[in-house]
Amino acid sequence: MSRQTRYITSPIYYVNAKPHIGHAYTNILCDTFSRYYRFLGEKTFFITGTDEHGAKMEKTAKEKNMDPKAYADLISPTFKELWRLLGIRYDYFIRTTDDYHKQVVCNILKRLEAKGDIYPSSYTGWYCVPCETFWTKLQLIDGKCPECRREVQELSEDNYFFRLSKYQDWLIQYIEDHPAFIRPDFRRNEILSFLKQPLEDLCITRSKKRLSWGIEYPNSKDHVVYVWFDALINYLSGIGYTTDEKKFETYWPADIQLIGKDILRHHAIYWPIMLKACDVEPPVVILAHGWWTVSGAKMSKTAGNVVDPLELVKIYGVDAFRYFLLREVTVGHDGAFSEELLKERYTSDLANDLGNLWFRFASMLGKYFHGTIPKVPVKIMGSKLMQETFLTWDRVRESMECYDPREALSAIFRVITLANQYVEEQKPWVLAKDKKQNEKLAQVLVILGECLAHLAVLLQSFLPDSSKKILDRLKITGMEIIPHKEDFEKRMIRTDTGIERGEVLFPRLDEKKTD
Ligand code: MSP
């Protein structure tokens, strides 16, 4: 059943390091889905933001000799700037240091306490003094701190616990009854098998003696809220839970909560249980993507293999960067990042296929018809190319329904290949030599123009800049929202105004300026 509204969330990003392509990937996926839903005419709300509390953040700020809030104020805008440069059109940017968010966290804690789902108890863990972090026994490596490999000491402190265990059976049943709740399927199985062991209750506070950078626990001046408990609530506070019920009811439940596989347990276990305890419905889908690795390792500041998205965008452009990430891997799987592969995709798919198709069409139209689409009778659906183009709308829809933008793009690019083949077969340059073939030549160019218009419309969610360029050059407007396939089964291409050839869409890499 199609819904009128859509709510899409990205994880909120830690501000203790600069954004890299892993972060960019999550938000490019969110943006692609949001653009696609908007295209279908659905009222869509896409929220992203920054996760600003916790030990790591406090430590990083200390190293920089800064107050954590001042440090967050400095880094949080770098994410906004990256999203701007990547054409990420979010609707709201949340920061967990915002007052209203803190208020919602406190409202939820009070509610859960009143229900008896939170209780005080003693927490025992292994504490690493230099890292100022508690670890569980399982996290230790050879009995030492997994981060710095130094000695740890066993410590106990009074804390507050959330009764995860109470909801374990409910969660298992929910996941079993809703096969599409955790995607892809292999992640769902992973969670179900994890849930075979008894769940421990979650320690949701930290003693201020060790960590002061967090939301103060409503009932105790000695504790702050555990950063994950605080962070997950952003998905509710950002749309007005307990502060703007009308807005909240408009958007909740979230349609897609995009995450990386490393934060699956937080989202597929803690999160639905927190919601259940608050009597709030779970999201429709938790969609976990894989990791981008560089030379076999996950990209991270510690590994020193971070790829800066801005550097790549400067060289290849936003659309090429988006295209590579969306096209190279199926959502859920890991991807090996290499600039060589990006260059290959750029050259073969974008420059040689899409860019060249536009260039050939626009140049021939300029040469043979002074850049204006000729008025000739054409049976659009009589051409195989256009039949395939129309079928692609359904293929894109089906792929997006299965959360598979890679397949959607591959369907679109199949048509680009067919369109280039059509040019080769029809040989407009031969038709142009024979006056009697003028009508045929005009028909071929109308069909190509029509096909390009469809391709540009279909590409809007994936390659927004290039799609806009093509539509602008064709002087086609009003294609931003197309709820039903029937709405576009009319000719798009205009015969009353000329088209512009414009600059090459994807210049050869050796001709591109890299500064
Ligand atoms: N702050 C938490 C999320 C809280 S959500 C309530 C967090 N932040 S993060 O900045 O470390 O990561 C944010 C997202 O980036 C995660 O989805 C993570 O999987 C993704 N990526 C970080 N490195 C990545 C790769 N190398 N590859 C792909 N995505 C990865 O976790």
Shape-level CATH architecture of the domain at 346-511: Orthogonal Bundle
Q: In the CATH hierarchy, what is the superfamily of the domain at 346-511?
A: Isoleucyl-tRNA Synthetase, Domain 1
Structure summary, number of beta strands:
16
The CATH class of the domain at 346-511, by name, is Mainly Alpha
**How far apart are the first and last residues' alpha carbons, in Å?**
49 Å
Shape by Cα distribution: elongated
From the 3D structure, determine the CATH topology of the domain at 346-511: Isoleucyl-tRNA Synthetase, Domain 1
Largest sheet: 7 strands, parallel
Structure characterization notes:
The chain is an alpha/beta fold. The chain has a domain at 346-511: Isoleucyl-tRNA Synthetase, Domain 1. Helices cover 47% and strands 14% of the residues. It has helices at residues 21-39, 55-63, 68-85, 99-115, 168-177, 185-194, 227-232, 234-237, 245-251, 264-277, 309-316, 318-328, 339-369, 384-401, 405-426, 428-431, 438-459, 464-474; strands at residues 5-9, 13-14, 43-51, 92-95, 118-128, 133-135, 153-162, 182-183, 202-203, 205-207, 223-225, 256-260, 286-289, 292-294, 297-298, 335-336. Strands 1, 2, 3, 4, 8, 12 and 13 form a 7-stranded parallel beta sheet that branches. The chain has a 4-stranded antiparallel beta sheet with strand order 6-5-7-9. Helix 12 (318-328) crosses helix 15 (405-426). The chain starts with a strand and ends in a 41-residue tail after the last helix. The model has no long low-confidence stretch (mean pLDDT 94). The structure holds 5'-O-[(L-methionyl)-sulphamoyl]adenosine. 5'-O-[(L-methionyl)-sulphamoyl]adenosine binds next to strand 2, helix 1, helix 7 and strand 12.
